[in-house]
């Protein structure tokens, strides 16, 4: 007996509702495999929990899409371990020319939509040493390996040999012998792999491999690998992948956007707009990021190495600005330029911070008129540091009547009907910092 099933096609409205609640990576797959719904999928707002952007890697909700140039060597070719490792890691993250030389990524063009984090720099890129030095290194290492094999055959240890051999071998060879056989073999492999392109160019030959562009999709230690002909530049492939994800959409809503790029170019489609609740990046990332962000972000987390561009809209418009910096002097000159309602400072190397440093940060933050509710938080590693800052606040108050003390807290009369409350509290978040020093602008007592 056959059972007749009454199936109805999914309506446009129903499809949009389904797609709206579908995980982004699954949406990408559906759109790829079902071209008939691709336009509809693009029209449905895209919401992403975490998005990380790098030059050749895009990570969406823990699923990463990484590009590289994979070298498939001919069966009779000897492959250096270094190249094997690069292949195992998805291929090299730069283009290769016809002979196998690395192409300088800093020389690649910038297209509309791209985010450029190179800061105008174009450093040298490629082999660290000239060809003749690599050939010298290879020669010395091969001589050392020959000597080590002779010693093994005779049952003589390296230590015994070096104690008796004074002028028998050159200094470089002697050092390689001292480093041991395993290190010498790795050196030989590295030198030979580096010299591949030189030999190919000299003989006008192609390298003993077929290059492919590899896309590695990874999630939860599982990988899916796709390879295509190396018929375009790696940066062009990156542009194409991100175009596939993000082009022709409305504003993409992202809870946490991570852009920790240095000397890279993120290849993005024209017109991309992201509304992010939390943005994380280095100080030099902030200005380029602003080209794709809507004006307001709830929280901006910055890892500051040098100094912060306080004019960046991403920085100035953040409600909460979190700065982790190794530069002890940075906030002393910049805090007065930051109007953010909440600022949080942390120093990874707290052993270099003194009580006076902490108090200087508070003083600098208070050098401009801030509205009631503004807050400065500084991470502390000890309770004693917090108590010492409160003691400085008490002693710096011009009159005792202007300062009231409580347990772990000081309230100081300020200006324009405002008071300052400084206290230190336990840090409830998992962190290397056990305490937080909080300074807040509050309404003055009547």
TrEMBL record:
Coiled coil feature spans: 131-168
InterPro entries for this protein: DUF3557
Keywords carried by this UniProt record: Coiled coil
Pfam families: DUF3557 (PF12078)
PANTHER family: F-BOX C PROTEIN-RELATED, F-BOX C PROTEIN-RELATED-RELATED
Protein name per Swiss-Prot or TrEMBL: Protein CBG11657
The species this protein was found in: Caenorhabditis briggsae
């Amino acid at each position: 007996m056959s059972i007749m099933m009454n199936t109805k096609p999914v309506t446009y409205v129903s499809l949009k509702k389904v797609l709206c609640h579908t995980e982004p990576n699954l949406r990408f797959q559906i759109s790829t495999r079902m071209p008939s719904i691709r336009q509809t999928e693009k029209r449905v707002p895209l919401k992403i929990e975490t998005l990380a952007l790098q030059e050749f890697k895009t990570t969406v909700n823990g699923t990463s899409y990484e590009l590289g140039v994979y070298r498939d060597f001919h069966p009779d070719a000897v492959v250096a371990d270094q190249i094997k490792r690069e292949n195992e890691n998805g291929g090299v993250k730069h283009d290769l020319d016809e002979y196998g030389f690395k192409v300088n990524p800093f020389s690649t063009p910038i297209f509309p939509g791209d985010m450029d984090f190179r800061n105008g720099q174009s450093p040298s890129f490629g082999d660290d040493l000239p060809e003749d030095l690599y050939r010298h290194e290879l020669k010395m290492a091969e001589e050392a390996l020959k000597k080590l094999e002779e010693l093994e055959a005779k049952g003589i240890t390296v230590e015994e040999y070096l104690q008796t051999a004074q002028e028998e071998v050159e200094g470089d060879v002697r050092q390689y012998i001292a480093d041991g056989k395993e290190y010498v073999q790795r050196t030989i492999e590295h030198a030979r792999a580096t010299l591949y392109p030189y030999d190919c160019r000299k003989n006008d030959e192609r390298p003993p491999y077929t290059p492919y562009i590899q896309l590695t999709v990874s999630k939860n230690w599982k990988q899916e690998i796709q390879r295509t002909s190396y018929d375009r530049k790696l940066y062009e492939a990156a542009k194409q992948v991100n175009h596939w994800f993000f082009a022709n959409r409305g504003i993409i809503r992202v809870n946490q956007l991570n852009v920790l790029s240095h000397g890279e170019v993120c290849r993005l489609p024209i017109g991309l707009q992201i509304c992010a609740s939390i943005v994380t990046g280095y100080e030099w990332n902030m200005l380029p990021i602003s080209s794709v962000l809507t004006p307001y972000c709830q929280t901006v987390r910055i890892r500051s190495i040098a100094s912060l561009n306080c004019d960046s809209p991403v920085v100035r418009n953040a409600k909460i600005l979190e700065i982790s910096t190794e530069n002890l002097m940075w906030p002393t000159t910049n805090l007065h330029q930051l109007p953010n309602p909440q600022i949080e400072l942390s120093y990874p190397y707290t052993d270099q911070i003194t009580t006076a440093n902490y108090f200087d940060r508070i003083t600098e933050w208070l050098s401009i008129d801030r509205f009631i509710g503004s807050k400065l938080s500084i991470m502390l590693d000890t309770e004693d540091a917090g108590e010492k800052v409160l003691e400085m606040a008490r002693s710096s108050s011009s009159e005792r009547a202007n300062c009231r003390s409580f347990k772990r807290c000081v309230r100081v009369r300020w200006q324009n009907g405002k008071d300052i409350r400084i206290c230190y509290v336990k840090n409830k978040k998992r962190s290397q910092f056990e305490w937080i020093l909080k300074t807040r602008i509050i309404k003055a007592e009547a």
